Amino acid sequence: MNRQGISLGRVLGIPIELDYSWFLIFALVVWTLASGYFPSEFSNWPTAEYWLVGAATAVVFFLSVLLHELGHSVVARHYGIPVSGIKLFVFGGVSQIETEPPSAKVELIMAAVGPLVSFALAGVFAGLGVAFASVAPLLALAKYLAYINAALGLFNLVPGFPLDGGRVFRAIVWGITKNLRRATVIAGTLGRFIGFLFILFGVYQVFTGSLINGLWIGFIGWFLESAAMAQVRQQRLHDLLAGRRVSQAMSTTYMSIPPDISLQQLVDRYILGNGERSFVVEEGDKVDGLLTLHDIKSLARSEWPTTRAAQAMIPLAQVKRVQPDEQLWAAIEEMNHDGVNQLPVMINGHLEGMLRRQDIISYLRNLQDLA
After folding, report:
1. Cβ atoms 86, 96 nearer than 8 A
2. Contact at 8 Å (CB) between 352 and 324?
3. What stretches of the chain adopt beta strand conformation (E)?
4. Segment 268-287, tens digit of pLDDT
5. pLDDT digits (tens, 9 = 90+) for 225-261
6. Residues tagged active-site
């Protein structure tokens, strides 16, 4: 999972990460509860109590979101689908499932389990509300969490791909048509339509006096439309690259450097001079490792004159690599998973070339032009 937030450790072996945007929605939820919802439902509390219960409720709510996503991830792993982690962010949470499910049935089960978890949690908190009816703060917390988990489950059943309901809809279309591509395009188109409906309703809310609600609904609609469009584009990209091999997109030219060159010489001569960003460290015909601009930037500038390429490089044994006859789409997924911009293309320890993101973009342009 690419690091763009704060690691919270692992649950059931699945990495959990908190995106920085989460703090915005957390603060908004606490403020809404402490200054609006709880004072209107439970009067005559001290101000500090409203904020304390609001913060506790927000924390448990996001734990509920985490359990919702864990439902997806646990089912995915049960069916052998890799899960790189779960990220909590401004829109709630997302399970980072690395590949498409193998069948419509698995897709249906994976999608449905999330809302089922939310509905189960709603039932649990409703029961706790009855049990703690005489303790106002606990009743307030349980009552709101029962409501919000039920609302979360219902919202995720909206058939707007890539929401859970949209994935259930795609699974049904996939099962009927036996065609994942067609199902994705149909579900994505419906998801975009529903996103536009949210945006229009948000605009209506703004013009009828509900500014905050309207902006929030419109923002959710924009997110849904963008996410659905991204899924459709990804499917079209997958179709375009279906059957293509790494050898068709890779570059057979690459920048080779000796292991004893200093980083300062490398920066002056090749990076600033020629605009190169990645280098193969070779001694004779033997590949020792890979050195990128990112590796150089991780060291202090004062160390560049005295640090050799061999000291800063990633040793070949630790470098992910691909073979020329591998599927190009699989190589792209591996690059995205590892967060790298290039992969060495090798056969039996011999370097055949490099597969870079710019090579893939150029290849795609040629495919589109020819199409």
Report:
1. yes
2. yes
3. 5-11, 14-19, 83-89, 92-97, 256-257, 278-283, 286-292, 314-315, 342-347, 350-356
4. 888 887 778 888 888 877 88
5. 888 888 888 888 888 888 899 999 998 888 888 989 9
6. 69
